[in-house]
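Researcher: Quick sanity check before group meeting.
Model: Go ahead. Protein one:
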Amino acid sequence: MTGKFIMQTINKWIALFIVLAIVASSSGVGLAQTDGDVVLPLCSATVHGKYMTTAPDGKKYPTWHPQIDPVAGCHFDHEHGSNPAFASPNVGGNNPANWPAFGYTASQVDNAEGHAGFKVYVLELQGLLWTITQHMGTANAVAAACNRFHTLDIQARDGISGTLLVDVHMLADFGVSRAIVTPQDFLAPLACPNQSKDIPGGRGARYLPVASLGSSGGETWNAISMPSNVLNFIPATISFSVSDAQTACDTITCTVNIKRDDTGTARQISFGPGFGFAEGGLRGEFYTDPQLKHTAESGGGLVRQYIAPDFTFVLTDTARIACSPYGAEYYYLCGGQYIYRPIQYLHNLLITGNN
């Protein structure tokens, strides 16, 4: 039922984009023509600023936006993956109050994460609709090489009723940074030359492209390490990858971002057996530090968590499940065949250049 609704929603978005294309092509208002391609203007900071949501701390933060603003008729030079409305069809999905707050989690420890790095994955897994927001540094390899802690916010709803079951926020430990090509050497950035030695027992890893080693393709972040956390959250088998990373490190010292002619939209998220929220963790509404080590009353340096009473979820499939983008601005389809239609096709129709 949810899958049918999601695909109906996707079709509506596709129809909207087609209409936008027709209107843009026919009106020509505020548009330029380049070699037969209609070029939409870049959206202003004012237009971008209207996409905001209120986080648990009562402050407003940027949130997801479409690639093209349908009112202003302009485009953004970055994208954020899945439309969060796909994950809350029965609870006012088009209300941004239900959408991810980009920067809420990291700001509690005064950590500023680049806005373009926030990516949203909406998918259906074992009858639940999941919204997973992750910060991944494909647009800034130099910063990603040293920062092992990045936002990972997870929301889960009942796939039929839309009832909220999980709404948690954390700075996930993605571990060391390494070159993605063989040999997968540890990176030694000038800003953190000993990063490979500073994580005793850590199991996470961020595999980044390195230009001097001939790295092609993208990057993979996997095996998050969150031991003994108060949620009893089991993240170790979740993995994020992007095959068209926008930047690469120049060398293993990673001092310069090498710009690539890629868009960072070809993303995939995958899960292995055991992923989930096991019995024994805290339930209800409460506050923790962003690394889930302890609880405390609400206040500075803490993030709000919610897990429904008696909720448990442990992925029981015996094989790894890969979820890939499907449709326009886009729902992720897990397992089986998928149609990879990243929103980059809009650039081919309407926009010259990206990022």
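Researcher: Fine. The other one?
Model: Protein two, sequence then structure:
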Amino acid sequence: MKELGKWFMDIAKYMVTVLLITTIFSDMNEPIIFSMVAILSIVVLVIGLVMVNKDSETNNKKKGKKK
């Protein structure tokens, strides 16, 4: 689950990078597209962070039970 969460975070980074490069090198006249990509990248980032956090909590609980 942790690897899938990292994958989601990477996808969010790539989306933001593409959005920034696109706005720098071309005239983005569509604020709706900018907003939708920004919102989607935030959602994907949050999903990734939640997955990584849950996996970390699960691993900590397993380590605590072994002691």
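Researcher: One line on it for the slide.
Model: The first helix runs from residue 2 to 25.
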